[in-house]
């Protein structure tokens, strides 16, 4: 049965500024994650909120480890007389589809550690709006091999990847089947930045629902 009301989205923010012993800022993280505001009218939202709360807490634990590395880098730079750029991490989210069948969310994770290029990741989560349970690839597709072949075909047809001369094997090696979300236009898959040599940002393709309907259990509205 459809949820009585659609979810109203807010945010839960995990943020921390980290400093070295002399007070110099060495790292700052700010993860803005989804939070359903009207869990009384949309009960599955409580389960979704808990999933992101746990995800945010886990990322803050990882940040503590990264902080130790940032302090070490700062100490080395300071003693050698080199300039030091503090590490910044930001995460934002977008609800890209919300129906009675699925809630699809994509996140952008941006890390600037002073390198020539920032590192950017795309993350996607799909949830059952009746239960709030996170769905996986096998909840949508019946034939992983066929899906992979068609997704790789779509990436091979992209002009920017074609110009890079990437082989089918390289693109298939960078493909991760759980990295996708659902939009009004179809299934969007992406290859992470740095998964392909000299490609620094995620590359994405959208396959229309009709193009995968023979291997999909999801009936687009």
What's the gist of this structure?
This protein is of the alpha+beta class and 221 residues long. 29% of the residues lie in helices and 31% in strands. The chain is flat.
Structural topology:
Elements: E1 9-19, E2 25-36, H1 44-80, E3 87-98, E4 103-112, E5 119-127, E6 134-135, H2 144-156, H3 159-164, H4 168-174, E7 180-182, E8 187-191, E9 203-207
Parallel strand pairs: 2-3
Antiparallel strand pairs: 1-2, 3-4, 4-5, 5-6, 7-8, 8-9
Largest sheet: 6 strands, mixed
In the predicted model, the low-confidence regions spanning at least 5 consecutive residues are none
Principal-axes shape call:
flat
Decide which structural class fits the backbone: alpha+beta
Residue-averaged pLDDT, rounded? 92
Assign a percent range to the helix content: 25-40%
Strand order of the largest sheet: 1-2-3-4-5-6
How many angstroms does the end-to-end distance come to? 16 Å
Describe this structure in words.
The protein is an alpha+beta fold. It is 29% helix and 31% strand. It has 4 helices and 9 strands. The strands form 2 sheets. Strands 1-2-3-4-5-6 form a 6-stranded mixed sheet. The protein has a 3-stranded antiparallel sheet with strand order 7-8-9, with helices on one face. A hairpin with a 6-residue loop joins strand 5 and strand 6. The model has no long low-confidence stretch (mean pLDDT 92).
